[in-house]
Amino acid sequence: xxxxxxxxxxxxxxxxxNYIANLVKERxxxxxxxxxxxxxxxxxxxxxxEWTTNAGENLTFxxxxxxxxxxxxxxxxLTQLVSLSLIELLEKLDVKAKIKWPNDIYIDSKKVAxxxxxxxxxxxxxxxxxxxxxxxVNQKEFEGFNATSLxxxxxxxxxxxxxxxxxxxxxxxxxxxxxxxxxxxxKEEYLKNLYLFEQEVFFEDDNGRFTxxxxxxxxxxxxxxxxxxxxxxYDLKEIRFL
Length: 242
Ligand code: BTN
What we know:
The protein is of the alpha+beta class. It has helices at residues 16-25, 76-92, 150-154, 160-177, 183-192, and strands at residues 7-13, 34-40, 59-65, 70-71, 98-100, 104-107, 110-122, 125-135, 200-205, 208-217, 223-227, 230-234, 240-241. The protein has 2 domains: 7-182, Bira Bifunctional Protein, Domain 2 (BirA Bifunctional Protein, domain 2, 2-Layer Sandwich), CATH 3.30.930; 200-241, SH3 type barrels, CATH 2.30.30. The chain contains 5 helices and 13 strands. The strands form 2 sheets. Strands 1, 2, 3, 4, 5, 6, 7 and 8 form an 8-stranded mixed beta sheet that branches. A hairpin with a 2-residue loop joins strand 11 and strand 12 (230-234). Biotin is lined by residues 15-17, 40, 43-46, 49, 51, 60-62, 104, 114-116, 132-134.
């Protein structure tokens, strides 16, 4: 699962995830290829949202993993590996971050990075995966967004390419450290780095607000929350943090 043998830098593209998806359709991409764009004019976020970011100031990139061969029921292990790679990258830069379930990266209570994973499935297996990452690096203002950047945290201006290369090293290290079968060890590490883990906080579901405590995640990616002595299971679209 090594990435970074080939790095493609584009001046401008709709979305680096879409760019890779097109190459996959044409069968013209090798596993591990990383595509980075200085500007995305139609960047995609989770839950059908947009990912907008100042051109040239932040990292917007995706990479392709072929032959993943992971069952859909265990798909969360990939999310966990990517999240842990981002945490390790930030640690190298002296920034302490946490993972907000499922895969947002937060510094204190502000978002510094987001991940969008799009899997290609075949007979209940993840055949290949396009993993897109938006990391706020040098942007100084985020009007109307609860967001931060590396610059705002430590007042250092970073080269985007250096940060990308450092991420590639972190991913390759973490991916070789844990095989995709090491699900319980990966989960243990993920929970150690999970934002608001084991804390009593407010959530909202279709029935309204409630307080609960995150105590586990399932291999599918669902989150387990203890509410008034009962355990509840939620999927991404079923719950919001308040
Ligand atoms: C989110 O937190 O909502 C996920 C954001 C993912 C954004 C990245 S930027 C590079 C890649 N290309 C996209 O269109 N989206 C991802």
